[in-house]
Amino acid sequence: MRGPASAAMTSPKAAVEEMLRAFMKAARAHQLYLPNNPIYRGAIDTLRAAFGPVWQQMPILPLAIDEIEIQWEGEMVLADPTSAKSADNLAWLFFKDGVRELTITPGFEDEEVVKLLDIVQRARRATTDDDDLVAMLWEAEFTFLTYRHLDLLQDGVGGSETAPGPEVTPLSADQVQRETQAAVEESQASGFVNMADFDSTLYFLDGEEVEYLRREIEREYAHDLRGNVVSALFDIFELHADAAARGEILEHAQTLLPHLLAAGHFRGVAYLLHEAQASLSRTLNISDGHKSGLTRLADQLSAPDGLNQLLQALDEAPHLPPEDELSDLFAQLRPAALQTIFQWLGASSNAELRPALGAAADRLAGENTSELVRLVQSPDRVVSDEAIRRAGSLKAQAAVLALSKLLSDPDSARRLASVHALVEIGSAGALQAIERATEDSDREVRIAVARAFASRVHRPGLARIEAAVKGRPIREADLTEKMAFFEAYGALAGDGGVDLCDGILNGKGFLGRREEPEIRACAAVALGRIGTARALESLRKASGEKDVVVRNAVTRALRSPGAAP
Amino acid sequence: MSAPRAVAPAADEPNVRRAGRQLILAAYGALRAVKLYPVENVAVQKALAEVTAQSRDLAKSEGELELRISGEFLFVNQVRLRLELDNFASFSHLLSLFRASGIGTLHIAPTVSEKDWLIFFSLMQAPASDNPEERLVQLQTKLADAGVATLTTAPPTEQGDGQEKAKERAKRTYDQSVAATKELMGSLRMGASPNLKKIKRLVQSIVDQILTEETSLIGMTTLRDYDEYTFTHSVNVCIFSVALGRRLGLSKVQLYDLGMAALFHDIGKSRVPTEIINKADRLNDDEWRIVANHPWFGVLALFGVRGAQELPYRAMIVAYEHHMKADLSGYPRPLRNRQMGVFSKIVAVADGFDAATSRRSYQPVPYTPAEVMRELRDNPRRGMDPVVVKAFINLTGVYPVGTFVVLDTFELGVVHAANPLEDMISRPIVRIVSDAQGNVLFPGTLADLADRNANGEFVRTIIKTENPERYGIRIADYFV
User: Fold this and answer.
1) Is ipTM strictly over 0.85?
2) Angle between helices B342-357 and A207-222 (to 10 degrees)
């Protein structure tokens, strides 16, 4: 007996009615709220407590299920006439699937009541193809709940009896006795007794065998069923040249793909795509249709629609699959996936997903530069930007032409990205492509080019840098740009640039007028970078300079000649 | 048999179930100790102390303690105990002792002592009457004489007609299963979508019956309808597999998975032309090649059998692997790495046994069950997993259900059930179908070949297995 001893004694029927009302409320809470919701928890607690008065008055609770009501000892204890024959009516929910009686014993309220609420919820949502309530109750393996049901599904089955085998002609008792004696004599004459048949211990499973079976059962439930089926399908594909079977296998593989994705079984998806590729490469006598079927299979996930779905799911997933599983999956993507991946690299907010996507992008872009080059020119800015970045980081020589075309793009940010990418590529062609960008309308682009020339010591760019250093625009530029160009000049011109820089630093113009201090300071930096004796001599000449900006620049240049500032 | 070990309990397992299982293991240990050693032995004292402590604790915590058998189940109070790989030997032993002693329920008082248990276990294992009802009366009298009031026994609540009802239920389930399998195969042959719900429910029913009273359902496998071979074979393999899985300690839901896979194992035959399936002559090479395709035909066919939730992957694997050998020879030969699953191994043994013991179009004279069992056991080229074969023999006995036997009493018998006593595997329960004078008996009487006379000698012993047709007897008549 359970339940609070202090509870006021109600009639047995009232206790059952109250418990069923609490059950209905809990069922609604189960439907509407998550288990951690206080309303849900309250409803479950109330339901559990409602069993107390029931167990105070009866050791077990048998409930008869009628079409629209539940009865206890012939009396109605739950009915819902307004929703008769709908899934909301608990009686009808059980009745329609053949359940006619439920018997509940103490202890049910502890754990199993929630299991039943869950079943009620599933049964309400079940489609005609889903398991019915009886199947769900069966699977739940209740300890404290039993049920009686009519097997509605078996109506019309089993009309014919299985025949007991062929007719035999009965023998008389004498004949049977004679045959028996003959059999005994035959047995005695043979004198052969197989002791293995009589030694029972031979059939006892020893500890090791029990352990082996335990491991086998564990393995049965741990192994990857889907992967196993995929393996079988492609084995069949390769071993049997039957065209219809191969076509069917391709269809099934197509069916499996979304199933695996929906189940989040990404390793399985990777395996399927990998094995499709393996079958494609090693199957003999394969028709063109089947070849393209296998190829299509492998390409399917890389197509924008499919991949977008996958990446959307991954991006929103609270927990990503293990890193190796994800990389297995991404390893199966085709070049066509690159565009979508680039889009997601720009859009994904999932910090865990981005590195895996980035690695996939690097692999695909590295293996398929033509696709990368195509994407560099994509009208989609997100894609194009990502492609430009990857072209640079991968030092994709093939992308130089496409990138150099972008130097005429009206968008300065794009031109700048292209410059960076070309600089990262760093080949002579790439650096040559950016020479004209020394005159770009955008300051950032010009600075990037100047710095690139300095760092790469791109001597073919000297003429343009020199022209800039001599020109008026640089004198109107800010200090950073000035510095970048003069430093580049110093790096490229060598000793040949001393005269120009000395003239700027120490020379006087018309009416003894000197260049602006910023320009002179930049010339000092350039001389420092040149670092030859003549350059140092020029710097020493200016060491007594009164202007602080110039004097500081000179001092620094003399302190570490030849070094970049 | 390995000694019972404590089993790690599942976290959500009810306490009474966990404690009940420990009690059964303790009782089994004490029974063995009492049987093997003198009372003074430390092992006996320790085992009795264990079972006493377990039973007292449980009786106190639950307010009362009752062990009850119902069919093949053991209940502690109202809670059914789970049969698992670790404990099935102890459960089976206790069940068989209870049955043999005519005990249906044992009520244990919280004051039970070690001495009470010692007397009870000694009496249970002492030679006594062959009749369980008489034996129970003797046991109750002797317990009373010994002043044991803390252990009270009562006969089973299921009466004689329980067996008949079980038989009827088994027959109904069997017929429905064969019909549903036929419908399923027919649907697939016609390219229609079969009703899986019906099949699922039938497999659940098979699992329930194997769990409660397996003898009747296993008896049905002797029907072996020639005209319906493909369908009866699928159902038989399902029944044998589930029964074997139960011995291996599979849970109810795992048994269901195994049963579904076993029922579908030959579903690929729905793609083999009926004229080949039913051909009476030996198959030519081309025909054989087509039949040998049925495992992979099965994989493809099962894509068309779908419940709402999931493709039947496990059944696909079993269909694909059931003709592979444990070393992956056999057919089909896999190209990719694969390790044969234990479900496939179970179905392979059940399939091999049922196929060889059945009369089929190209096998008009079947092998006897005992012959097949020896072949599976002794011929490694069959490629069966030896541990699974061993467990299968453990299930069916050396003489499986339906084996027709000649006894040293000049009686004829049909094996009705394996002996529940684990050391009597070659001494099954036999239905005597002809007396020593050659009079054919119907329905005959059951005899336990483990029974001994007053001198301690076995009353009856099998001396030969035989073809029943030689005696004008049809085995299936005794099972329906």
Assistant:
1) no
2) 110
